[in-house]
Amino acid sequence: MVEPSPEKIQKDILTFQNYMQKKYGGQLGIGTLPATDAEVIGEEKEKRETKPKGIKFDLKPEELESYLNQYIIKQEEAKAILATKVCTHFNRIKLGVQKEVGRIKNNIIMIGPTGVGKTYIIKLIADKIGVPFVKADSTKFSETGYVGGDVENLVRDLVDEADGDINRAQYGIIYLDEIDKLAGGYSSTGPDVSRSGVQRALLKLMEETEVDLKSPFDPVALMESAMQLRKTGKIKKEKINTKDILFIVSGAFSGLEEIVKKRLNESRIGFNVPSLKKKFAYLKEIKSEDLIEYGFESEFIARLPVVATFEELEVEDLYAILKNPNSPIILGKKRDFAAYGIEIEFEGSALHKLAELSYQEKTGARGLVSAIEKVLLIYEKKLPSTEIKKVKITEATVKNPGEELKKYLNKLIKKSHRLKSVRTG
Ligand SMILES: Nc1ncnc2c1ncn2[C@@H]1O[C@H](COP(=O)(O)OP(=O)(O)O)[C@@H](O)[C@H]1O
Ligand SMILES: [Mg+2]
Question: Domain 61-208+243-309 class?
C-alpha cells in the first residue's frame, strides 16, 4: 500500500469535514469552538518540548542479570545477553549521542522452543526498567495482509503506554512474538507478498523512521485533525521517531535446527561432525544465513544483530521452577485456594512428580500450569464446601487425585462422627 501524501490527507479531511457539517450543521460544534482552545493546544505543546529529553536509567548489566536470576531458571546465556544489551541500549541513549552515521541498534532476536521463558524474560525486564512496553503477535499482521499502517500502530500504542508522552514513548520497547510466522515468503501460488511486506514495514521501524502520531486510517484521528484545522488554520503534525525504540522479537522457529545442522554437516565434509545429542543444541551455532535460509529477508535479519537462544527445560529445571518461591505458578495456585480461605501446601515429592508429568507434554514450563490444574481442579471444586481449611498435596495426590480426595473426605467424616459421638456419649 502506498502511503498517502500529507496534501491528500488534508484534502480528505476537508471533504470529511464538509460532509459532517452538511449532515449535522452546527450541532457538532465544528468551527464554533472558542478561539482560546487553540491557545491551550499551543501551551500543551510547549510543555512537552521543555521536558528533559534524556531518560532516567542507571541500571548495570549485572544488576539486571541478578534480578532475572531471581525468576528465570536456566537460560544463563540468554539472561546474560539480554541483560547486557538492554542495559547498554538505554545507557547509550542516556549519553545522548545525537548523530551517528550507520549506527546499528541492538535489536534482539530470541530463539527457542515453547514455554522456556522468552516472553517471561521480556516482561520481567520491561517491568524492572519501567519503560513503555508493547507486546504483539506477528501473526496479527500477516492475517490482515500487508497494511503498513497496522505495523505503525505498534509505535502509536507505545505512546498510549506512555500516557501520551511522546518523548517517553521514543525510548520504549516493542516486543513481537511469533516472528517465525513471518518467514517463508513463498507459498504455492508464488511469493507471499503479505509476509515479506510486513518484514519490510517492520525493518523501517526497527532502523529509524518517523511515524505520525495520528493514523491516516483512523476516522477519529481524522476528525480531530479536521477540528484542529478549523480552529488553528493548521494541522499540527506530531511525529514519533523510532531511532531509540528497542525491538525484541521471538519465535520457536521449528525446523531451524535442521537448517543449522545441514550447514554444519556440509561445511565439515570429511571431518567428524560432533554429534549434538539434543535437537535444540544446534541452535547455539546459528548464523544469519540460517535465518535467511529459513525464509527471512536478509535486510530484516540485518536489523537484528543480537541473537539469544533459549534451551529446552529438563525435568529438574521444571522442578526448580516450581520450588522457586518467586514462581508465579505456585503462588497463583496458593492464591486461588486462599480465595476460599484454604491454605494449600505442596510436598517436594509432589512438585517433582508434577515436573515429571508436565515434561512429557513437551511444552516447557507451560505444561506445569496444566498439570497442576489437572490434579487440583477437583480439590478446588470440593474443598470450599467442606470444613477443610488446610490441605497438603503429596506425591500420592498427584498420582491419583480422585482417590486421595475421597480418602481425605472419608477421614474428615469419620473425624466428625467421632466428635459427635464424644459430644453425645
Ligand atoms: N526458564 C524459566 N524459569 C522460570 N519460569 C519459567 C521459565 N520458562 C517459563 N517459565 C514459566 O512459564 C510461563 C510461560 O513461559 P513463556 O515465557 O510465556 O514461554 P515462551 O518461551 O513460549 O514465551 C512463564 O510465565 C513462567 O511462569
Ligand atoms: Mg512466548
Answer: alpha beta
CA dist 106 to 78, 81, 139, 200, 224, Å?
14, 11, 23, 18, 36
**What does R_g of the chain's alpha carbons equal in angstroms?**
28
The answer to whether residues 161 and 208 touch, using CB atoms and an 8 Å cutoff, is no
Domain boundaries, the chain: 61-208+243-309, 315-424
* 369 in contact with ligand 1, CB cutoff 6 A: no
Question: What is the number of the ligand 1 atom nearest to the C-alpha of 71?
Answer: 4
All three cell numbers of 119? 516472553
Question: Which residue puts its alpha carbon closest to atom 4 of ligand 1?
Answer: 72
Cα 300 from Cα 207, distance rounded (Å): 10
Beta strands in 9-138 (DSSP E): 108-111, 133-137
C-alpha to C-alpha distance for 388 and 375, rounded to whole angstroms? 18
In three-state secondary structure terms, 239 is: strand
Q: Is-contact 73 212, C-beta < 8 A?
A: no
Q: Which pLDDT tens digits describe the chain residue by residue (425 residues)?
A: 555 665 666 667 666 656 655 655 544 433 333 333 333 333 333 333 333 344 567 899 999 999 999 999 999 999 999 999 999 999 888 776 656 666 778 899 999 999 999 999 999 999 899 899 999 998 887 655 555 567 888 999 999 999 999 999 999 999 999 999 888 755 555 556 677 778 888 988 998 889 988 877 777 777 887 888 888 887 777 899 999 999 999 999 988 888 988 888 877 654 555 555 666 677 888 899 999 999 898 999 999 999 999 999 999 999 999 999 888 899 999 999 999 999 999 999 999 999 999 999 999 999 999 999 999 999 999 999 998 899 999 999 999 999 999 988 888 888 777 777 766 65
Phi, psi (degrees; rounded to nearest 5) at 239: -125, 150
Q: How many residues belong to the chain? A: 425
pTM: 0.79
CATH 1.10.8.60 applies to domain 315-424: yes
C-alpha distances in angstroms, 247 versus 84, 202, 356?
A: 15, 10, 36
* Helix residue ranges, H only, 70-218: 76-95, 118-129, 139-143, 148-161, 166-169, 193-207
- Cα 116 to ligand 2 centre (Å): 8
Could you tell me the distance, in angstroms and rounded to a whole number, from the CA of residue 120 to the centre of ligand 1? 5
**Residue to mutate, 116, 180, 313, 363, ligand 1, most ligand atoms under 8 Å from C-beta:** 116
